[in-house]
Amino acid sequence: MTATCAVVLAACILGVLYPYAIYPAVLTLLPKVPVEPRPAPRMRFSLLFCAFNESNALDVKIPNLEALRKVDPELQVLAYDDGSLDDTLTKLSERPDLVEVFQGSGRLGKAHGMKVLAGQAVGDVLIFTDANVTLREDALERLSSWFSDPEVGGVCGTLRYVNADDSSTAAVGGAYWRLEEKIKTLESRTGNVMGADGSIFAVRRELYPDFPDTVLDDLTVSMAAVFAGKRLLKVDDVVAHERLVTDRKDEFSRKARIAARAYHTHRVMKPQLRTMSRIDTFKYVSHKVIRWFGGLFVIIGTVAAIGLATTVAPFLGLAALVAVAASTVIAAKVKSGPIAALAEIVIALLATLLGVLRAARGRTYSTWAPAGSR
């Protein structure tokens, strides 16, 4: 019994650490597949974003779009309003010179809205972003240089958060994202990134796939480049900025929703996933699948640790159980410092697991709402 608990505990610790520590180390050992930016022929871009109740964000977004249009007067900007209850639609509609606006008939969701916009796009390359994200003014020029290589089908930019010091939730979220960006860079150097974040990525228009409204469109669209045999790159010189969620409850809900959509998308993409190369399959499982069950490793590992303590001495098992309960209560109340940071990590893992379990039971998400603490 003691040996069994020890082995299970060790395996769970390995399962939690592998995607974030061991996997990146393995990536550094894989063969490099370099791609270099180069002078690009003239190409046209279409920039697409969906919005729901993003009136405040548009006060920053619209000036950013103006700056991008000054750099590229031919930039096509398309926006989809998903039934906003504030004056999002009004603000977008006030700028027909800058933005072509499409309005949904009620709440239909981002995936639906992006499909509508992609159907109206005329650019050689489609740029996907969010209503609350701003792009650095040289983003279009940088994208052109990467897409000058015909083997490049998609490009994931770099997202930088601007408020990581606002709370423990934001600090942990910012640290997680810096690690995520590093992992994607390592993946890119060895071939393909395993999917894009919706804040900033671009694909060639002819690669845009068909998909149901319930999927995570960022993952579906970006992985279409990989399925088509093209490169999906992560680059450091296409930069976007966004604000982090600062409230623990908001972040829990957000992560659970994203995980549910990601796992549902995984099931929809299974036929295409089977066609990937062995190296891409290895990266996909390491980056995506194992992470989804980090919360399960935490739960099983905790039970195994209590069981291990009990096999040594019953009072140690009881002490371990009390320690776990006390830690849970304390972590729920502490909002700063190392304990709060550890709590944020565990909560994120559990939220992801909850989302996966919801998706496994058939629950899907198509709509979203901006986090109030963003």
Explain what the structure shows.
With 374 residues, the protein is an alpha/beta fold. It folds into two domains: 45-246, Spore Coat Polysaccharide Biosynthesis Protein SpsA, Chain A (Alpha-Beta Complex); 290-360, no CATH class. The chain has helices at 2-27, 55-71, 88-93, 110-120, 139-147, 168-189, 217-227, 248-268, 270-273, 278-292, 294-312, 314-333, 337-360; strands at residues 45-51, 76-81, 100-103, 125-129, 134-135, 152-161, 200-204, 231-242. An eight-stranded mixed sheet has the order 3-2-1-4-7-6-8-5. Helix 2 (55-71) links the parallel strand 1 (45-51) and strand 2 (76-81). Helix 1 (2-27) crosses helix 10 (278-292). It is globular, with a radius of gyration of 22 Å. The termini are far apart.
Task: Reconstruct the topology from this structure.
Blueprint: H1 2-27, E1 45-51, H2 55-71, E2 76-81, H3 88-93, E3 100-103, H4 110-120, E4 125-129, E5 134-135, H5 139-147, E6 152-161, H6 168-189, E7 200-204, H7 217-227, E8 231-242, H8 248-268, H9 270-273, H10 278-292, H11 294-312, H12 314-333, H13 337-360
Parallel strand pairs: 1-2, 1-4, 2-3, 6-8
Antiparallel strand pairs: 4-7, 5-8, 6-7
Helix pairs in contact: 1-6, 1-10, 1-11, 6-13, 8-13, 11-12, 11-13, 12-13
Spatial extent as radius of gyration: 22 Å
> Architecture of the largest domain in CATH?
Alpha-Beta Complex
Give the low-confidence spans: none
In terms of DSSP E residues, the strand content is 5-15%
Class of the largest domain in CATH? Alpha Beta
Largest sheet: 8 strands, mixed
What structural class should be given to the helix and strand makeup? Answer: alpha/beta
Helix content: 40-55%
How far apart, in Å, are the first and last alpha carbons?
Answer: 47 Å
Number of helices: 13
- Mean pLDDT over the full residue set: 93
Strand element count: 8
Side by side, the strands of the main sheet go: 3-2-1-4-7-6-8-5
CATH superfamily of the largest domain: Spore Coat Polysaccharide Biosynthesis Protein SpsA, Chain A
Structural shape:
globular
Q: Into how many domains do the coordinates divide?
A: 2
